[in-house]
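Recall from the previous lesson that a structure prediction takes nothing but the amino acid sequence as input. Here we apply that procedure to Tol-Pal system protein TolB from Undibacterium piscinae. The sequence below is the only information supplied.
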Amino acid sequence: MVFSGLLAVTGAHAQLRVEVSGVGSSQLPIAVAMFADESIAPQQVSAIIKDDLLRSGYFKLIEVGGVISETSAVNFGDWKSRGAEALVVGSVQKLSDGRFDVRYKLLDTIKSSTLSGISLANTAANTRLTAHRIADDIYEKLIGVRGAFSTRLAYVTKAGSSYRLEVADADGEGVQVAFISNEPIISPAWSPDGTKVAYVSFEAKKPVVYVQNLITRERTVIANYKGSNSAPAWSPDGSKLAISLSRDGLTQIYTVNANGSGLQRLTTTSGIDTEPQFSADGQYIYFLSDRSGGPQIYRMSSGGGDAKRITFSGSYNITPRISPDGKTLAYISRREGKFQLYSLDLASGQEQRLSDTTKDESPSFSPNGRYIMYATESGRRGSLAVVSVDGRVKQKLTVQAGDIREPTWGPFMK
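The prediction returns the following tokens.
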């Protein structure tokens, strides 16, 4: 999908820089050849694929040093002797309508067989997307989990007095601006179909919840009630948002239709209830409450009702995020003065600290559930970090000038 309604970013501070450390529990040795005639395309497809696979932490790249087409005869024994268990080959052709047709094959050198082969025709502007989709296919065939390289990120940058809601590819490339304001922007959240982002803007000198269409740039006010309007989170079918409002006194949780109508209150407590998040199946809402004396995470039916406390380790647990499969809860916990990212296996109750930084906030799962992105601080500047759910693979994303915060990982796109 092309987000034609967004503004392209220029300027040195715009580009995200990605650094990777750590590797998966086991790395699969793979060779990615240069694609035949790929120099005619605006970007080198094979290089983008290699960068994606490396960034995942689950692949070890074997040097190829040459061009191999998907139609070339391959000596499987030779590649096996060089340590490659898989080989990626392909070609690029320019079609009469100006699009580029990228053809690729994934070969199993151990079994001397073809694991996958696809052809993708796309515009010059979507060359990177084509490469990401091929990397997704490789990841899925070899790891057994759907790849998320072709997904998008949204986040907020601050440079001087300017706040910008930006959207980028999962590798930090293709940065575009959705909204600019001189007042803070917080809590962006992707719609399930990836065409809209809900967020809180302070442009009216108070927090107001908006939904913005990324294609048309149209903005809709979802909640502008007395007091604070905050923490939007989409229902899985995109029909509703859960929000936090202080319109009746203490902050409580409500739901509202995606067009701002049909407000319904879900919690009625003597404490503060906020930061709602729907489970992927839509049955539950996880949220933050201080009803037990300190901030902890609870779960209730998505229609409201009795709530069950979920977190018990530590006296301060905030910002719940539930994994796509509903099995893992990610959150920020304050312990010994450090704000760090933790995960909780909901079945076993086993908790794991995933970050080694000390000022973490705003976790967000990748749509395949394999990674968690979060905001942190380094050298008094906000940066983004990504960690695999097992804690082994770590990435750091920074911008050259200013802060970057409030990340949210977009959904799979059709």
